[in-house]
Amino acid sequence: MVGLYHFGCRSLVILFMGMICIRTATVFVGIYMGPLAKKALVQSGNQTVKKKFWKEMNRYTGAFCIWGLFSYLGMLGDRWIAAYELTKIDLGLYSVMYMTSYSLVSAISIGIRQAVTPIIFRRVGYGSDTARKNSASTVINIALVILFSIHLVMTIFSYLFADFIITFFASESFTIYADSLYLLFLGASFLNIAQFLTNHGIVERTIWPYIPVKIVYSVSLIGVLLLLPFALNIPTLIHVGLVLNFFYMVGIILINKLRFNRTLISDTK
Predict the structure, then answer these.
(1) Is the Cβ–Cβ distance between 199 and 113 less than 8 Å?
(2) Distance in angstroms (rounded) separating the CA atoms of residues 54 and 61
(3) Cβ atoms of residues 73 and 215 within 8 Å
(4) Residue 23 above 80 pLDDT?
C-alpha cells in the first residue's frame, strides 16, 4: 500500500483503505453481538438450549475459521510469489492492475452480499422447512442476477477502456499490460460469484461442504505458481488466476447441486 502511494496511486490506496474499514467494522459488530447472545442465553436459564446453541455455534464458526485461513492464503499467496519472482517494475505494474480490478469487483460483491445476508437469515428464520429455504434462495437468485450483470458490464468496460481505467486510478506509465486488464476483471468476477454462491450453505446452516474446494483452490494457486517450469511473468500470473478462479466457481456450483440440490439459478417453486 505504501508502494502504491509512493507511485502516486492515491485513488487505489483510498479504495483499499475503504475495504479495510468495511472488514474492520464487520469484525467489531461480531465482537459486540457475541457477548449479547451469550448474555441472553445465560438469562434464559434453559440448559438444553444453551448446550444446543454453543454446539451449533462451535460447528458453524469452526468452518469459518478454516475458511478464513485458506481465503487469506489464496488471496495473498500469488502476491507473495509475485513479490519474490517478478522484477520491481513488473511487480508495480501487476499491483496496480490487481488493485484496480479485484478491489473494484470485490467492493461491489461485498456490498451486495452484506446487503442480502440479513434478508436471507430473515427468510430462513428458525425453521428448516422447504418453503423457508426456497424463499431465501429466491433472494439469492435475484441478487446473483444483479451481481452477474454488474460484473459483465465491468468486464466489458475494462476490455474497451482499459487504458482509461488504469490511467484514472494510477498513471499512463502503468498501461503496458492494459490489454490483459479485462482478464483480471473476469477472474475476479469468477471468484466473487463463487463466494456469493456459498450463501446456499448459509441457508442450510453449514459451509463445511465448501471447505475442501476452498483448500484445493488455495493450495493449487500457490502450488502451480511455485512449480512452473519457466520464469514467472505478468501474463502467466493473470492466466493462472483466471483458470483457477473459474474451476473454483465450478466447484462451488457442483457442491450446491450435489450437496444442497441447488442449481446456479435454483428452482424455488
Answers:
(1) yes
(2) 10
(3) no
(4) no
pTM: 0.80
* 230 CB burial (10 A radius; 0-12, 13-18, 19+): exposed
Domain layout of the chain by residue ranges? 61-260
Report d(CA 97, CA 148) in Å as an integer.
Answer: 21
Residues in the chain, total? 269
Q: pLDDT digit string (tens) for 147-196?
A: 999 999 999 999 999 999 999 988 899 999 999 999 999 999 999 999 99
State the CB neighbour count (10 A cutoff) for residue 200.
27
**Residue range 245-267: mean pLDDT, rounded:** 85
Q: In this predicted model, what pLDDT tens digit does every residue of 109-148 receive, in sequence order?
A: 988 888 888 888 888 765 567 788 888 888 899 999 999 9
Nearest to 255 by CA among 205, 194, 190: 194
Look up cell 477472474; give the residue. 187
What is the C-alpha to C-alpha distance for residues 199 and 189, in angstroms, rounded to an integer?
Answer: 16
